[in-house]
Amino acid sequence: MTAILDQLRAAPRSVLGRLPGVSSDDDETRRPLPVSGMLAAAATLGVGLAALTTLTLVGWIAAPRGTLEAGLPGVFRTAAQLWLAAHHAGFAIPGGRVGLLPLGLMLLPAVLLYRAARWMARDADLRLRLPARLPKNSPKAQAGARRRAQLVLVVQAGVSLAAPYALLAGLIAVVARNEITQPFLGETLFSHFVLAFLAGSLATARMIGPWRVMLRLLPERVRALTVGTAVATAVLLVAGLALVLVAIALNFGQIQELSSVLSPGFVGGVLLLLLQLLYALNAVVWALSYIAGPGFAIGADTLVAPTGVQLGTVPSLPLLGALPESGTVPAWMMAVIALPFAAGAVAGVMVARISPSPSYEAAPLWGFLSGVSTGLVAGVLAALSGGPIGGGRLATVGPSPWEVALSVALEVGVAAGISAGVTNLLLLNKRARTPLDKAAAPVRKAGAALAKAASKVGLAESDPRPLPGHWMDATEADTQEIPVIRDDWQDEHASAAAETLAQSRSRAPEPGPDARPPRKDIVDESDDRGGHVIYVDPYAWDRD
């Protein structure tokens, strides 16, 4: 796909370069951002439809006659419907609607859109349009203006890709209609626009720098909430995946029995396995709902929850053989309810470490808000993972979005609030009682390292004994008393100076009436009797 887009990028510029009087400079032949977005959207739709058409053609050849629409037009129409379903756009069928769509299929357009958005950013030279880096210690107003300019460019890139992508998807929805399945045009436009906007925005922001730099585009509090929500959601999804794997391992025999009953053959078995892998992400979200408490339903008047299981007739999908049997749940399974609290505790620590609060009561509030945002994300995932399959009994399949959102928000929010408050308190106390010796620790370590190196090369002192007295470093200045000159101190140099002055007076003639008395504050530095004298000012450290 990248090679195709690069050819689209280079072809018009090479043609322009051959024309007389037209420069081939990149700045002059650079396409506008909306034009690059339109080319990227068209290429994404073309590559995605080609891949799904190939897969549908293989299934049409291996399937019994009459399963799919006759002829190649029917194959293309089915592939177009799969492409719409990959964006979670529902269909209307006689007697109901189809909303239970595989979340794993959404990865295909997401990856294609991300790569197309990266190409769009290079084609439009968005890196040159980004604000230049500011020097260190720049004013906050300039840094805020630069951040806002970057966000505006990111939003423009997302809209430039999403708008034509949604319009082209609307045309595909009109072409893919038939007498049985009719795509919802509103859901098609909305789902395609949202997915393309997210992919385009992330790809453009990725040009600014690594993911860590991308997070710095957000304010500190928003960044802390984003990281806390992502961490809590990731912990819940990992716990849901582990629960699904354990359920498959415990009920693997029943899954094999359902697969043998279907007897799909080799090609059909591969397609059936692929279908189950695409629905695996839905199962992980259902397990997340099970961990949160509300559970999920497989039809009307059914429930799979830690409090009990009540099932009826289940669709013949081998993956559903991992469901527990109807009845009470073992008591040890209730321990899974503690997992959301563990996720909240981890999220609260992250929120407090990224954005500590100077007030003790604000940190628990921000931790609870991270739990609320995690509940909203869980509710959206629950809504995407479930949906009806026609009418009647299977009109209710999957978890309840509002129940999952409320449960996750309360469980994760309470745990995150407590952990954020405790972590913030520990951080504040640690800063308040940081010992002064830590400031001198690097200097002491460096001195020890130098002494060790000198001893190895033979440069160490011959007498390793420490010098007498107390050696005071800079960190101990506040703890030591200021030296005071006492009256009983003896100044040897002053005594020698007084003796020299007396001898000179005895040899000198008597001073006249106008003679000035000698100054006692002048020291005769030429006098070296008794050795070299060093004067130490006890107040010098205060002046430094």
TrEMBL record:
<feature type="transmembrane region" description="Helical">
    <location>
        <begin position="99"/>
        <end position="117"/>
    </location>
</feature>
<feature type="transmembrane region" description="Helical">
    <location>
        <begin position="225"/>
        <end position="249"/>
    </location>
</feature>
<feature type="transmembrane region" description="Helical">
    <location>
        <begin position="38"/>
        <end position="63"/>
    </location>
</feature>
<feature type="transmembrane region" description="Helical">
    <location>
        <begin position="261"/>
        <end position="281"/>
    </location>
</feature>
<dbReference type="Pfam" id="PF19877">
    <property type="entry name" value="DUF6350"/>
</dbReference>
<feature type="transmembrane region" description="Helical">
    <location>
        <begin position="188"/>
        <end position="205"/>
    </location>
</feature>
<keyword id="KW-1133">Transmembrane helix</keyword>
<protein>
    <submittedName>
        <fullName>Uncharacterized protein</fullName>
    </submittedName>
</protein>
<feature type="region of interest" description="Disordered">
    <location>
        <begin position="493"/>
        <end position="544"/>
    </location>
</feature>
<feature type="transmembrane region" description="Helical">
    <location>
        <begin position="363"/>
        <end position="384"/>
    </location>
</feature>
<feature type="transmembrane region" description="Helical">
    <location>
        <begin position="151"/>
        <end position="176"/>
    </location>
</feature>
<feature type="transmembrane region" description="Helical">
    <location>
        <begin position="288"/>
        <end position="309"/>
    </location>
</feature>
<feature type="compositionally biased region" description="Basic and acidic residues">
    <location>
        <begin position="516"/>
        <end position="531"/>
    </location>
</feature>
<feature type="transmembrane region" description="Helical">
    <location>
        <begin position="329"/>
        <end position="351"/>
    </location>
</feature>
<dbReference type="InterPro" id="IPR045931">
    <property type="entry name" value="DUF6350"/>
</dbReference>
<keyword id="KW-0472">Membrane</keyword>
<feature type="transmembrane region" description="Helical">
    <location>
        <begin position="404"/>
        <end position="428"/>
    </location>
</feature>
<keyword id="KW-0812">Transmembrane</keyword>
